[in-house]
Design a protein that fits this description.
By secondary structure, the protein is of the alpha+beta class. The protein has a domain of 48 residues: Arc Repressor Mutant, subunit A. The chain is 34% helix and 14% strand. The protein is built from three helices and three strands, in the order βααββα. Strands 1-3-2 form a three-stranded antiparallel beta sheet. β2 and β3 form a beta hairpin. The longest helix is centred in the C-terminal third of the chain and has 10 residues. The protein is elongated. 11% of the residues are buried.
């Protein structure tokens, strides 16, 4: 079963005391661009990994892919 990316409610900046910096929640899914940056590779390489089902992902809309962070991190640890 695929993991869904959860959306988090982020408080408005005005909800924080002056000078406080809100902490962004950790991502549960990566994008193709995220993987390009992590692996320091090209877009084609990332799509080749997706085609060979190296980790779990799902297609979002017509062109967007979301890759399960957990399955990618597990895959990366084994490399």
């Amino acid at each position: 079963m695929m993991e869904a990316c959860e959306l988090y409610d982020v408080p408005e900046v005005s909800d924080f005391p002056e000078g406080a910096v809100p902490i962004a929640p950790e991502k549960r899914c990566y994008t193709v661009e995220d993987l390009q940056n992590i692996l320091m590779c090209g877009r084609t390489t990332v799509y080749d990994l997706l085609k060979t089902n190296q980790f779990r992902y799902f297609k979002l809309g017509r062109t967007g892919y979301r890759i399960s962070r957990k399955s990618f991190d597990d895959w990366l640890d084994k490399q």
